[in-house]
Design a protein that fits this description.
Length: 258
Amino acid sequence: MIIGFYILMFVLGAAFGSFLCCQARRLRLHEKGKKSLGRFSVCMHCKKPLKWYENIPLFSWLIQRGKCTKCKTKIGWAEFLSELGVAAAFLVFSTSFDPFSATALMWGAFISTLALILVLCFLAIYDGLYGELPSLCLTFAIICAIVVLCLKSWGAFSPLDTLYSALILGGLYLVLYLVSSGKWVGNGDWLLGLAIGIALSSPWLALIVLFLSNVLACVIMFPAIKKSKNHKIYFGPFLVIAYIIAVSFSGLLESMVL
């Protein structure tokens, strides 16, 4: 039964990943005042409407070898990585949850955290594609984080832990943004850090996320930095990945540092 639950979460994550990547492209076109893609998914190059079998998360990309079936233009890795990334996020987070013994409050915390993960994944996708974090989505992420905090900390709320956690992530990135006049980090990174800090409500987990996100950024982006010293690093995706790791293994990570 639990294996079936994990499979369901992976499939849902892949479907949401496909949806989020598509919506990120739609939002970008809207912000730039360009023509919308329409109601249905289309090839970004030849505008060919995609059939249902060309829209199956992960499988369609692999079968088509990352190319449009009509114009043969490469679709790129963004769609595939978005589907795989959100699917992996759902799967990893679901391993920390027992759906068969969970109470209504635990289910509420689980679903609200999934909603926050979706918003964060959208921000990570958008930041990875365009190097920006939409302000409206950042606001929604903070709201989702507050809901997660309320449900997870029901009856055991620690204002100081939440404050320290928010300051470690949101406060630090705000200082870096102000000191560097936006050269080191973007103006949306501190709001993203604030949302993650509120949701974690743990100074230790916030420090772990800070450490992991910077390590991931250095390791993954090292080839690009080595090739061009002027290459910019967008921290959004790495903050989100670090948060998903921290929230999925929070008990284990806190036991290691306490």
